[in-house]
Amino acid sequence: MPPGSVSLQTSNPSSVLLEGGQSRVGLRRQSGPIARTNPVNGDLLPTNAVEARNNGRFQVQSNTNWFTSKLTAAAVLPYAVVKGVLIAVDYLMLTLPSSLIGAVSNRGLQPADRTDFQVQVPGAAAGQAATGLKLDGMVLPKLVPRGLDATEMREQVQAKIYRGHDILEGVRNGTRSAEQPATKKDVSDIAFYLQARGQLANEGTAFSSGAFTIPDPECRIRNFLDSSPDAYQRDSSHTSKFQALDGARHRGIDLPEGGGSSLDEAMPYGMETLLYGSLPKNEGMRMPEDRLFLKMESHGAWLSKPSPGYEPDGPRRTAKLHDVGAFVGHSCSFLATRGKGSAAGSRKERIPDFFKREFRQLLKDAPNAKTMLLKDSPMDSSMGIRVAYRNAQDALLQTWNQRPAERKALQGFITNIEQRFTHPDVRIGNEIILENHASGASLGDALESLASEHPNQRLVLGGLMQFATQNEQAWAEHTVDRPTDRYDAGAQQRFVAGRMERELARFDNEKAKQVLQNLEGAFGDRTKAMCDFAVEQLSVTVDQIKSPEPTVSVGLSGEVVLSVTDEYEYENSPEAVLLSRLTRMNGQVGSLVDQLKSRLSLPVTEHLAPASIDSADQLRPLELAALAHIGVEAKYEQPNSRHPSSGEIVYQTLEDPDVEVLDGLT
Questions:
Q1: Under a CB-based contact definition with an 8 Å cutoff, are residues 79 and 324 in contact?
Q2: Strand partners, 212
Q3: Cα angle at 216 between 211 and 221, to 5 degrees?
Q4: Handedness of CA 395, 401, 402, 407 (dihedral sign)
């Protein structure tokens, strides 16, 4: 508390700051002592209300419900009038020619400044090149001043996208200090990055209304946003069942100013608040990992108390003038969207109408599986696709009581989900699902997933890949003083086995049995087959790097020189490194099986060869996504060639237009 201030304590934490001598009409002090700090030495001095009023700035804490109810009553009528005018303007904008409303609709920007523009979006993987994207011009804030140059404005948007990516990466990997609370600019930059990444995930198609979920282990991103002095807990109609879980109340951070010439507090499409809340890993909710739900909205909701009640450790802030108008606006927006279902083009988490129809049809086509299909209310607004997907998979395993027609219906339903939706294992409806790079996983994460009935394929592959990478670094550090031991394969194998054993020690025997069952069952067989297929494809690429095609050059006297070079260090190429790690991953699966059998006193048997995968056409979309997650990209599935002049690998089946074809060259 600053010197010369007093605090009138009440049961409500909200407060109003007043300067000495100001009127306090309508604010009543509760009974009890008033304390004032001595501005000279900071000691606590007894005083009375008159003395407090005459001694500079002081703080009065009042009843929030009384304060906000008076403020709401005073502001509802004028706000309703303004809201009605805005609705009328929106209607005119839909009916009148654009030439007549351009100045109004663009809010200080000429129509030419609202055209689509090119940006670069940083990749999710560390070190991954940025991807070009044509961003919707209407993503720019409504209240940009007329004096802002369009080129500068677009440059600022690009900078915000890069900075938003860097903030999230810093928070995830722990380099962003907890002593740096989130600012409004941080929130704004994160919002623009999410919008750009979301458009990429939406196949490049822009959308102005949508929700996002991103991985958030240990709630790092949620805690970072909670550190904002503007964060508060609020009511929300989204993912309501999750909000009943500990730590999952929804929060909001308002940015109502609309930005400015620097766009520091702007949000995409003129939105004015960021809604966010945890989706914790929870078997009852069928959520296999910790995620964070985020959504940009047009109005905040500070006056909407969270229906399950406030969390003691959650963020709180005091009332602000814009809260009343935001509350009314949010209420109007909520009512306006009722009954609209999953509108076309929307990327909200609503379950698509066509999916609901297909699920109802499945209940008719597979009556023996109906009870299992309806488990955990898949059509609830917090459950959705991930629950229906998993229920159908569980039902398909129960083939003893199903007719062939029912099994066919279940398989068709599962296949349709996998073809239409990315990440169905964590999806509710039409929301944008964003993932981190595999480097964020660990062997522990992979084992945790393998200890469940339905392992997450991306998480398992990512954890195994990360373990292979970490083993290289750990072994190099272990032998730093003994370089001759570095190439002792037996010693290295024992070293890796010890690290693996420590990870397995976290499980009791029941979970260890589940891990073993998945590794030796259909999931493990398919995973090993995928890795074998990836190794075969990468081997072709690495062989071509190792033994390149002949190169042609012109000598000093003009003669044509045909030569083969071996100067390229293929061992250090990205393809060779990836191939080496994939090969070790398969060995790690075998080692895990052996260790688990030894621990459970089961006989160690010879490892069987997995089923063969001969082409990428045999891989399901989720399996292709899982391989891409660990760096095995689609380009490795095609025959490759080496550029005869630059020596670069060309991942094309068609003729490279930059390569001059020399007749008679063999």
A1: yes
A2: 294, 432
A3: 85
A4: positive
**What's the burial of 49, exposed, middle or buried (CB within 10 Å: 0-12/13-18/19+)?**
middle
As a whole number of angstroms, the distance between CA 459 and CA 474 comes to: 22
pLDDT digits (tens, 9 = 90+) for 50-104: 443 334 333 333 334 444 444 445 555 555 565 555 555 544 444 444 334 344 4
Q: Is the dihedral of CA 635, 637, 642, 647 positive or negative?
A: positive
Least confident of 118-132, 282-296, 299-313, 616-630: 118-132
CA distance between the termini of the chain: 84
Q: How far apart are CA 566 and CA 642, in angstroms?
A: 13
pTM above 0.90, yes or no: no
CA atoms within 13 A on the CB side of 334: 14
- In angstroms and rounded to an integer, the radius of gyration of the C-alpha atoms of the chain is 30
pLDDT over 90 (residue 531): no
Q: Dump the DSSP string for 506-555.
A: TS-HHHHHHHHHHHHSHHHHHHHHHHHHHHHHHHHHHHHHHSPPPEEEE-
Instruction: Summarize pLDDT for 419-438 with one digit per residue, the tens.
Output: 899 889 899 999 999 976 44
Strand order in the sheet with 58-60: 16-18, 58-60, 6-8, 34-37, 44-47
**Residue 623: CB partners within 8 Å, gap ≥ 6?**
457, 526, 530
Q: Give Cα separations from 662 to 553, 564, 644, 659 (angstroms).
A: 12, 16, 10, 9
3-state SS assignment for residue 95: helix
Tokens at 546, concatenated: 């190792």
CA distance 456 to 449: 6
Measured between alpha carbons, how far is 187 from 232 in angstroms, rounded to an integer?
14
Contacts of 330-334 with CB under 8 Å at 24 or more apart are 330/297, 330/298, 330/299, 330/300, 330/301, 330/304, 332/83, 333/297, 333/298, 333/299, 334/237
Neighbours of 271 (CB within 10 A): 23
